What does this fold into?
Amino acid sequence: MQNNDILSVLSRSGVLLNTSIRFWRASKKLKAEDLGLDPDTVTNHLISLGHKKLVPREALKNFALIESRAHALVDSATFPFLGGIARYLPNAKLGAVTARLEGLEQEFVFELSRFKAQYSSLRVEAAREWWDAARRLVNDPDRLVATIEASMPQAAELDRYFSFNTHLFQVAVPEKSSQLELIAAADQQAIADARDRAAQEAARKIRTGAEVFVSDCVATLRQETAKLCDDMLDSMSAGKTQGVHQKTLNRLVRFVDQFKELNFAGDREMEEQLERVRREFLSRTAEEYRDSSTAQARLRTGLGKLRDTARELAHQDASEIVASFGQMGVRRFNLAA
It folds into this structure.
């Protein structure tokens, strides 16, 4: 099997996703000089400077909430690619994830327009509150307030501090130089050689990491399966509804569906184990489990076995799955020929 085959299948099975969210944090790192103090006389364990809020935290809390939701969405539906340079998003999750990110971006834009509309009054109020505080704290309140005001952008500059960007990339390796810009003839060959060496080195690293990436994705999904079983067993032991709650069962149903969507590498063994658990244990409701101690015991045993199997598989060599994944590219090539 060639690493090129794995890269080819990866490029067809998903995309690389990068989501970047930026917003003004509204904080200023105060220095001793800002307070009219001699920095050589400030004792750190008595006086705390550091970052101080310029506007109330509530004014920006929705931006932080949108950011956390976007990151949680991406983390739950993707795999870190080659050390985290981007996130690998399987095709099965592409539509849902991009649609949800678009929705979060619209929320972000709405919050930005709302924040900009109230920013002038926030700026004035912040200056007033800092003035009141500065009169009690320092001998030169004008100096401190001027520092605070200078740290707050003008309303017309706010767009520079806010952005919500999502980019999709194809998995590929860099190619050799095909042409060069118009430069001195004597330099062309040296530049071409340097570019080609850089492209070859980057390609080598990507191809080497491709097998490891697929193997890590397989292990991650297996580990998540084991963790879910542990969480469910803990929830059943500590539950207030005689051990089984419908939310606990629904969580497993959602996980089985999500596993299939994220299983781009084709881990058939783990997928079959999950489907078996779905057939055997998820046809009953939580109320039916609560009415039968025998059924509860069987559910606990089934979850325990699934957990142990997932842990065992997570520590096994996944080279056979990786090889089969790479062969998908060979089979497609042969069919096309």
